[in-house]
Amino acid sequence: MPRTLHVERPRDLDAALAALAGASERTRVLAGGTDLMVELASGRAAPDRVVDVWKVDELRGIADEDGGLRLGALTTCKELLASELVRARADVLAAAALEVGAEQIQNRATLGGNLGTASPAADLNPVLVALGASVRLASARGVRDVPVERFLLGYRRTERAPDELICSVAIPPRPSGERRAFRKVGTRRAQSISKVVVALAVVLDGERVASVRGAAGSVAPQIVPLPTLARELVGKVPGDELLERASRACAREDAAPIDDVRSTARYRRHALQRVLRSVLAELRDRSG
User: What CATH number is attached to the domain comprising 248?
Assistant: First the structure.
C-alpha cells in the first residue's frame, strides 16, 4: 500500500518558518520540484513530510541592493534570463541559467533549489561562488547570512539546519572593469548534466591581474573554489605560458574528480585545465 506523504503549503514566510520549526533531517522543502519530484518517483527520497513554499511571495523578486543584487530564493532560471538587472550586474548568472535544462525546467528550477540540492554538477552554484555571493537563511530562531562557498559543505550537504529556509541570495557590487565568464562541458549542447562547469571573475590592473575568483562543478564531491588561480596569477602579467601553468596547477590541486557514468576522472581533470586556459585567455584579451 502506498505511503501517505504529509505536505504543508504555507502562503507566507511566517507560516513557512512555523512549518519548519519542528523539522527533522528527513523533512524536505519543495520549491520548483525539478529534483525532488524525480527523487520521490524513483524512491531515492523518503521524507517524513514536505513543506511546499512555491506560494510564498516573500521568497520572490530581483532587486537592487547597494549596487549589487538581492535575489529571492524562488527566482527561476527564466526570471534570471529576463531580468535587466541580472544581465547588467551578474551577466554570468544569466549565462549559466540559459544552460539549465530545457525551457520547461528553466520555468521551474529556482536559485534556492539549486543551492539547497547542493549537487556537485549544479550550473548556478559555481557562478555564485565566483561572484562572492551569500545565502540568507531564516528560521523561527532568527536570520543569518552565509557565504555560498561555506554554505555548500559536500555532496548534497549544506550549512542549512532542518528548521531553516533559504530566503534569498545577495550578490555584492562588482568591481569596476571586472570580466566574467561561464563555461559548461557536457555530452551535448543542451539539456545535459555537466561533465565540467566553470565560472570565473577576473579584474586586471593595467596588464596585471588584480584579482581572480573562480569555482568549478563536476570535478569534486561538491562545488569547489579555485584558490590556486589567485595564487598563481595575482600581481602578474597573464601571458600564455603563465596561463598554461596556472591552469595545470589549478586542475591538479583544486579538483578531486571521480570516474562515473558520465565521464572519467582523467578526462574531467584534463577538460578543466583546457577550459580554464581558454577562458582565462578570453578574459585577458576581452576589451575592458
Answer: 3.30.390.50
Residue whose grid cell is 584579451: 285
Q: Which domain holds residue 220?
A: 179-285
- CA dist., res. 261 & res. 12, Å (int): 41
Residue 200: helix, strand or coil by DSSP?
Answer: strand
pLDDT in tens, 72-126: 999 999 999 999 999 999 999 999 999 887 788 888 899 999 999 999 989 999 9
Backbone angles phi, psi at 199, to 5 degrees: -130, 135
Strand segments (E) across the chain: 6-8, 28-30, 49-52, 62-65, 68-72, 134-139, 142-147, 152-154, 157-158, 165-171, 179-185, 196-205, 208-217, 224-225
Residue 220 located in a structural domain: yes
CATH number where 29 lies: 3.30.43.10
pTM of the shown model = 0.93
Cβ neighbors of 261 (< 8 A, separation 6 or more) are none
CB 112 within 8 A of CB 59: yes
